[in-house]
Amino acid sequence: AARALVRLAGAEVASPDEMLLAVRAITYLCDAMPRAADAVVRHGLLPVLCSRLLAIEYLDVAEQ
Q: Residue 27 CA to chain centroid, in angstroms?
């Protein structure tokens, strides 16, 4: 599940809504299961998240 969510969050062809939902799902997953944070980081979440946070067009993701 973590790999698929990271892939959706980082997909260039994903709609902004899909990306936002993936980031929200990752947030909820890590809140409910703190050990899941390790899995999403191992699957490359940090570079994806940093690139999304630096892009002004993804303000909803930054707020999440």
A: 8
The encoded tokens of residue 26 equal 């990752």
* pLDDT, tens digit, 9 for 90 and up, residues 27-58: 999 999 999 999 999 999 999 988 887 776 76
| Enclosing domain of residue 36 | 2-63
Distances (CA, A) of 48 to 24, 54, 61: 14, 10, 11
How many domains is the chain partitioned into structurally?
1
Return the amino acid letter for 34. Answer: P
* Distances from the Cα of 11 to the Cα of 4, 15, 33, 35, 50, angstroms: 10, 9, 24, 24, 14
